[in-house]
Amino acid sequence: MVIFKKYFFLFLSLFALACTQKEGVRIMPIDDFFKSQNRIGYRVSPDARNLSYLKLEGKNQNLYVEDIESGKGKKITQLKEKSIIFYFWVSKDELIYYKETDPALRLSDIFIINKDGKNERQLTNNEKSRIKVLDDQLMDDKYLLVSSNKRDSTVFDVYRLNVRNGEMQMAAKNPGNITDWTTDSEGKLRLATSSDGVNETLLYRESENDAFKPIVTNNFKNTLRPIAFAKNKLNVIYAISNVNRDKGALVELDCKTGKEIKVLFGDETINITDAQYSRKKQKMSFVVYETWKKEKHYLDDSVKLIYNNLDKLLPKTETRIIDRDKAETVFIVRTFTDRNPGSYYLYFSETGKIRKLSDFNSAINEDEMCEMKPISYVSRDGMKIEGYLTLPLKVKAENLPVVVLPHDGPVARDIWGYNPEVQFLANRGYAVFQVNYRGSTGYGKAFMAAGFKEWGCKIQHDINDGVKWLISKKIADPKRIGIYGTGFGGYIALNGLYSENKTYACGASNSAVINLFTYLKSIPPFLKPKLQMYYEVIGNPLTDVDRMRQSSPLFQVDRIEKPLFIAQNTKDPNINAGETIQFVKNLQKRNISVTYLENDGDPFYSKNDEGRQKLYTALESFLEVNLKKK
What we know:
Blueprint: H1 2-23, H2 30-34, E1 39-44, E2 50-57, E3 60-67, E4 73-75, E5 84-89, E6 94-102, E7 107-114, E8 121-122, E9 131-139, E10 143-148, E11 157-162, E12 168-172, E13 178-183, E14 189-195, E15 199-204, E16 213-219, E17 224-229, E18 236-241, E19 249-254, E20 260-265, E21 271-278, E22 283-290, E23 294-298, H3 301-313, E24 318-324, E25 330-336, E26 343-348, E27 353-359, E28 372-378, E29 384-390, E30 400-404, H4 420-427, E31 431-436, H5 445-449, H6 458-472, E32 476-486, H7 488-499, E33 506-510, H8 516-521, H9 531-537, H10 545-550, E34 564-569, H11 577-589, E35 594-599, H12 609-628
Parallel strand pairs: 30-31, 30-32, 32-33, 33-34, 34-35
Antiparallel strand pairs: 1-2, 2-3, 3-4, 5-6, 6-7, 7-8, 9-10, 10-11, 11-12, 13-14, 14-15, 15-16, 17-18, 18-19, 19-20, 21-22, 22-23, 24-25, 25-26, 26-27, 28-29, 29-31
């Protein structure tokens, strides 16, 4: 009987433990959320015979080419601890790749290599200049159009890069105010954009033998972005424009007169943010607009049919075509949802068949992830604010600890989809609140302009009003609300601790801007033509001194009372590491609890497993002590 009782109670204990595990949520390892993908950057060769991708092997990342029919692959580069940050097929037999030389300054050199790994040649040695390919079309079997600031660090000229011998010949010299160059469907340089700091002018020429002439000028708050030249319509381009309207639309523009000819698709209730053009068909395929997630409006029924077929083959997931062959019959497709980072597939449109290539992150189990729900509320001055709320699994949406997660910027937005940081925090039991505060993109130019010079003011009000909305809905525990962000999001987090300091129990920042004056000084030389635009968005250091000081955490140490977590990369070109250290010391002098973490490695945590693990382990401990257990 004694033995029976012993095993009976053991059985009850094991049963109770099993029930707890079944009803509870597994705390996942940090690295699982951010795991580096084994294979990324899939591309298909122009003749659809080969597939290429980047493969991570320890700290080394190399380029592979695989025969699509046989499935046999080969490593064609032999890099050691240097990343390929971008590559593309320049012909059916050759690939161009950028080898990273300085991660912090985002510098790289360009190489060309045969698909069998032979005949690899270095085409550029940039040292401290930047170079980018303007058009991936190879002209006369040897020339690529590239832009580079090697002549003058403040401007980008256009060169013809000979991929056979590496020689660069000037194709267009920048007079000093050109901020962008655009080619036509044949790879010829036909458009340019100039800026005087506030106003942007579109310039046009009929042929490469002509001089560029200004055709239309707009304030930088307006968008006029060329997409492609129209077939059989001389001097006509397709462009995304919000000129004389609040929301972006796809329009036809006459480059002779600068006048809008007609709207191909537009609606004042939605904002067109992107458009796809088919080189093969020489027509527009679809436009992309943003509501609570990205959606398409099709302009070509054959493209609509392709996506409809993909929806049938890959149900309950978002699909994006990220590459295609020249004939547009073989496609590389990326899938995702808010709870799944997705997978890569090859799709053969002629047969309707699909082949899985790899998962974006195989460590993620969709059933363990949390749903990202769209939300909206009205701010104190009557502006509609939208965002996302992600609730932890298997808990009642009531009286929860909340992490407010403001996005980076200054001009950006949060989007619906898998976000590893959001899922990591939700897995730890926090409700995660993301706000597309005024100044965010995707909602029209009036909404974006409403955020100019409102850092620390109305932007902070938008976020804090959202927190009050969460409290009114009884979702948030008023005593357990924290705020955390990266870059400008980190700046907003620090700012929130003193602008309305009773809102948050603690704050955390990663690579945060703490001094707006220093941030403006860090703007690289080639962006100087747009400096006045930055003054309009952030503030003018000569005329907005008081406002900028009040909105810079560095000068507001005496107003911060809550515990802080501060992480910074000492090689980040956008911040002054010394200022951040002094900021921490000044807080500590006032006996404010500060957890300080720094590293001097790769500034992009997605490429730095050790730094990433260190950051999120420390952040997890900080939030556990200062938020969850309060």
